[in-house]
Amino acid sequence: MAVLNFGVAGAGRMGSIHIENMMRTPGIKIIAVCTVVPREIEWVKSVFPDAIVTADFDEFLAVEQLDAVLLVTPTAFHKEQVIKSMHAGKHVICEKPIAATPQDAWEVYHESLKFPELKVACAFPRRYATVYMDAAERIRKGEIGEITTIRSQSADLYQCNEFFLNYIKVSGGIFIDCNIHDIDNCLFLIGRDVHATTAYAVGTTHVFPQFAEWGDVDDGMGIVTFEEQLVMNVYGSRNMRHAHHTMTEIIGTKGRILLNGQPRLNQIDISDETGTRMVGATSHMDVFAPAFQREIEGFRDWITIDKKPSFNLKDAAKAVSIAFALTESLREKALATVKEY
Ligand SMILES: NC(=O)c1ccc[n+]([C@@H]2O[C@H](COP(=O)([O-])OP(=O)(O)OC[C@H]3O[C@@H](n4cnc5c(N)ncnc54)[C@H](O)[C@@H]3O)[C@@H](O)[C@H]2O)c1
Predict the structure, then answer these.
(1) Which residue range forms the structural domain that includes residue 19?
(2) Residue 74: what are its φ and ψ, rounded to 5°?
(3) Domain end among 87, 102, 123
(4) Ligand 1 site, residue 35, Cβ cutoff 6 A
(5) Are residues 46 and 180 in the same domain?
(6) Contact assessment for residue 234 and residue 179, using Cβ atoms and an 8 Å cutoff
(7) Distances (CA, A) of 123 to 83, 303, 337
(8) Can you tell me the distance from the alpha carbon of 177 to that of 97, in angstroms, rounded to the nearest whole number?
(9) How many domains does the chain have?
(10) Which regions in the chain score pLDDT beneath 70?
(11) Which ligand 1 atom is the nearest neighbour of the CA of 177?
């Protein structure tokens, strides 16, 4: 197998997970890392003594042997770094969201069309989760007919600590931070070039009243309409007391597919005098860790053997537009227009 020389920008919370996955992935060699955090620089140097480690993104991108880069930097940098990477002739996969605003997301998409020789992807792991891939295949085969309604939720296990609260304050709101995964997985399952028109969202702050000051909610519900006869519903929560529960339901003219109907970590059921209970997942990563691994393999195979990817950069731009319209609707208490640029 040919070996791709990879650079990774960002070695923080998500970057370190990607780096560990890449170390396990045949056909990928990390030869350069960019991070501005001194403690991470030390860690990276200890793991990759031969790699180029720098805090300067331009210096990182100038490493000539790089075939591809993975960007796991804060969202505010995505647009500029994806565009720079393409201009440097590198294949690029960037963490979600592809950019910090709808206008920037669409600019990245349009710019990518000027580089047909490069593979440019936005990372959304559910596109590589086996249940979502299986469902997509069944939908493409017409097993449930024409999709009429699609709904998806990301409901996080309750937590309340300083890190979490500080994170929420700058997260951009539940629809952008969390439900963008649901929006994207709905677009993936729909599987054609549909166009969202309006977004309406409501939410509550019973659990974390302070979220209201930050323009956010602890439980949010959004409805999105499309030019095509199609409705999308997303639900996000920071307040599940029993488990993390990501779930998606696709309703078609001839049937229905339900993904992850239960908040299971695994197939173990425990029975005792109180009844029967399952072992619940505690986080998104619990459920999707294998998908993160397959995602990077999918990107490798797209580059090396031109295997059809599940990634879709236009959907990534649409997801930003929809998430922002839902956030606008929530904050303005009015119907919002979804804009493509
Ligand atoms: N797919 C998912 O489920 C998921 C989960 C969490 C985060 N994310 C995304 O991953 C991205 C990173 O989030 P995180 O939580 O890992 O952040 P983090 O703060 O833990 O890490 C950020 C990293 O970026 C580096 N960095 C900062 N500024 C930089 C610059 N100008 N040039 C190069 N590197 C720079 C830092 O050194 C650090 O290594 C975000 O866009 C976030 O939306 C995705």
Answers:
(1) 4-123
(2) -55, 145
(3) 123
(4) yes
(5) no
(6) yes
(7) 16, 15, 26
(8) 8
(9) 2
(10) none
(11) 43
